[in-house]
Design a protein that fits this description.
Blueprint lengths: L1 H25 L6 H9 L3 H14 L4 H14 L2 H14 L8 H12 L9 H14 L2 H13 L26 E4 L4 E4 L20 E5 L8 H11 L3 E5 L11 H10 L3 E3 L10
Parallel strand pairs: 2-3, 3-4, 4-5
Antiparallel strand pairs: 1-2
Helix pairs in contact: 1-8, 2-3, 3-4, 4-5
Length: 277
């Protein structure tokens, strides 16, 4: 009887998951900033412009989106429109803290230049429109591919992290650390999955920075880390445990955008870089 009830619940869950997948792919996800940059760098300005309009329609108050739009418009030579977009970005996020300073200075220099910038040819617009129409079928193809696997994918969440020790004997319990300083507090979760215990941390400590794994496969992924940041009530996140090998490679622009859309700041440092709180 218990097995029968369990199977009924399982099939209901799977059916709901299928509906959600179909609904999600029926409305294509917002293009990532990496996709926008790629289109612009290859000269497909109309495609980049169309993607930015989609992003801005969903996130009109995103300073980063307006900044990227300004960059695209500047590449097209539409300097007046680019200046307007840059002003909006600076108004929404004074100082543009999400952008590298050299990128900001480069954009400002381009906008203040007096030399004309060549406009893209009509042929490039036509080619982009045709390629963009063909790519519109991709979300549906990916959606049905996801449905083909959904009955076989179960995410293991029963144990946050397994201890492995090459030597015989007890390896210790998995755990993270809260480091409390005189002026700043930091939480290091360690290589772990999402746990409800994280909700206990803000009951005693107000965090200034949380360090979470974001590489998926063995630890949390980007979505879990966003939820974990809600649990610990910290909006400044340093991502770790990613890109060191194939199973945990991530899309940097996409990860940063997902955190940004939730009002959070995700920092991904290069080897040797550092931050100051």
């Amino acid at each position: 009887m218990k097995n029968s009830q369990f199977l009924k619940r399982l099939f209901k869950t799977l059916a709901l998951s299928m509906v959600m997948v179909l609904a999600g792919f029926a409305h294509a996800a917002d293009p990532s900033m990496a996709e926008v940059y790629k289109a612009a760098e290859s000269g497909n300005f109309s495609q980049a412009e169309a993607m930015m309009k989609q992003v801005l329609s969903e996130h009109p108050n995103s300073a980063k989106a307006h900044f990227v739009h300004a960059e695209i418009l500047a590449k097209e030579g539409r300097l007046a429109a680019a200046k307007d977009e840059l002003q909006i970005a600076e108004k929404l996020a004074p100082g543009l803290p999400f952008a590298k300073q050299e990128a900001v200075r480069g954009l400002e220099a381009r906008l203040n230049a007096t030399a004309p910038v060549a406009q893209p040819s009509a042929n490039s617009y036509q080619n982009t429109q045709s390629s963009s129409t063909a790519s519109g079928y991709m979300p549906w193809v990916l959606g049905f591919a996801a449905l083909a696997f959904i009955l076989f994918i179960v995410r293991m969440m029963t144990r946050p992290r397994e201890i492995y020790s090459p030597m015989p004997g007890y390896g210790g319990n998995p755990g993270g650390f809260v480091i409390e300083g005189e002026h700043k507090n930091i939480y290091i979760s360690g290589d772990t999955a999402l746990t409800m215990d994280m909700k206990l941390i803000p009951m005693r400590t107000k965090l200034d920075l949380a360090i979470f794994p974001i590489g998926n496969n063995f630890t949390m992924d980007v979505e879990d880390s966003i939820l974990a940041s809600d649990f610990v009530e910290c909006d400044k996140i340093l991502g770790v445990h990613y890109d060191t090998f194939g199973y945990i490679e991530i899309n940097h622009e996409d990860a940063i955008r997902k955190f940004f859309d939730k009002g959070k700041d995700l920092m991904l440092l290069d080897i040797g870089d550092y931050i100051q709180l």
